[in-house]
Amino acid sequence: MKLDSAGLQVLSPAECVELLASTPIGRVVFTDHALPAVQPVNFVLDGTTVVMRTTPGSKLAVAARNTVVAFETDEFDPETGTGWSVTAIGYARAVTDPVETERLAHLSGAPWSPDGNDRFIVMPIRQVSGRRVRVRP
Amino acid sequence: MKLDSAGLQVLSPAECVELLASTPIGRVVFTDHALPAVQPVNFVLDGTTVVMRTTPGSKLAVAARNTVVAFETDEFDPETGTGWSVTAIGYARAVTDPVETERLAHLSGAPWSPDGNDRFIVMPIRQVSGRRVRVRP
């Protein structure tokens, strides 16, 4: 079992991707007007690409396209005081092609809106890291 | 009820601080080797200052001191598909004074370690924003 400098168990890339796939909500970390920003978002994994669903007017749709972002998911059990956290990094791209949009809408289980209410941002994972985390209830 | 451009309910600063205070775990967003980074952390509120507990060797202790960071908490109910998210922004500072460290250790409910295993990073909130969020179960 590999431990990091803080004594936390380091997860393998395969474990990280498996844990990522187990949760429907993640947090995308980006820069908004030169300040760090973070926003929860619904997502699915398409292979090793994070597919985020957003709306046309959202800050995310504007700020997190064509830029390097971090994407984090975690889960904590207050009973046992343990949990995990996985962070992926990659280059985010706004999907503009209607055919790709329809495919991603079906993949993500969302109804495809002909009025354009589904916007997808895809982030192929370039780096992934994760830890088992100790927390206090 | 104020809505943002994505149709989400905007929370007042007072509601944001109240919700922040209701959770023991948040995520601090910072820059690590020029890449966006995010890490879960135990915290308490000291007035309107976020007090994060970390360990000396951690990436957070090194990277998130004397810099602007974002701090996010959220909670989602998979049953109802609703939740909230609050993000605070401020200038993070590593606490080095032993008296301040002891006070924060007591405040955070952690036993004070004479061997220096408690490190605190404080972030007085400069900006706070929050939303009620719709999610898919």
UniProtKB/TrEMBL annotation, chains A, B:
Q: Which Pfam families match?
A: Pyridox_ox_2
Q: Record's Gene3D superfamilies?
A: Electron Transport, Fmn-binding Protein, Chain A
Under InterPro entries, the record lists: Pyridox_Oxase-rel, Split_barrel_FMN-bd
The name this protein carries in UniProt is Pyridoxamine 5'-phosphate oxidase-like protein
**Species the sequence originates in:** Thermopolyspora flexuosa
